[in-house]
TrEMBL record:
SUPFAM superfamilies: Glycoside hydrolase/deacetylase (SSF88713). Signal peptide: none annotated. The keyword Hydrolase applies. Keywords: Carbohydrate metabolism, Hydrolase, Magnesium, Metal-binding. InterPro entries: Glyco_hydro/deAcase_b/a-brl (IPR011330), YdjC-like (IPR006879). Gene3D superfamilies: Glycoside hydrolase/deacetylase. Its cofactor is Mg(2+). Pfam families: YdjC (PF04794). This is ChbG/HpnK family deacetylase. It comes from Bordetella petrii.
Amino acid sequence: MVVCGDDFGMNAGIDAGMLRLARLGRLSAVSCLAQGPSFAANGPGLRDFDLDLGVHLNLTEAFDAPAQAAVMPLSTLIARAYAGRLDGAWLDDQLERQFDAFERVLGRAPDYVDGHQHVHQLPGVLPRLLDMLQRRYGERPPWLRHTAPGMQEGIPLRESARARLVGALGAGAVARVASRDGWRTNRRLLGVYGQQGGARRYARLLQHWLHNARDGDLLLCHPALPGATDALASQRAAEFDVLARPELGDWMRLNGVRVARPA
């Protein structure tokens, strides 16, 4: 199972938490906000680990005032994507800038691509993303995150509905290009929830996700050390607490799961 930490580069607390979990062998992939405030400083530290490193495509998060005009609220982006009203030149510019920034910091191509708030799979975004990946990387393009939900046994209705909604926004399109054109993807996605409830609730959900995991599935997470400075800081710290616990190794062994990079 691929265990993927999202939002690396957003702030120092997130970056430090993921680096700590990488040292513990609890992550096998890290999704990078290539233009995030802390990525240039902390991204090079990722080279020390056996991880898949990906571009976490951002079209909705403004990290400073000059960037505000370059992004839009998620609801606006989704509406424009489904109406066929995305500005192609704007999108191409965002793609090139973020992939350039990733390669400038890490000195290599990304292993995979996903999206902050799953924007990579939206209509209008996915076709231009695939075109750019083919231009830049030819016959060795990165793999794509597939958001079709994994098994939901034991998952509360609210959280399983959220997982299905994420998949409904574009998993079918990713599956079609994978089948038709040979793009590599993970099998299914686990780890979607409302990002609230503290460590106890996250631990319960995580045990269900481990039970439901199958070969090739991807478990996403959003950990950070305590003190991260964003709206989800408290729950990020709760995720870190659970993912860093020694007993997680026992939970994985009981469910026949191991943390691994994609085959």
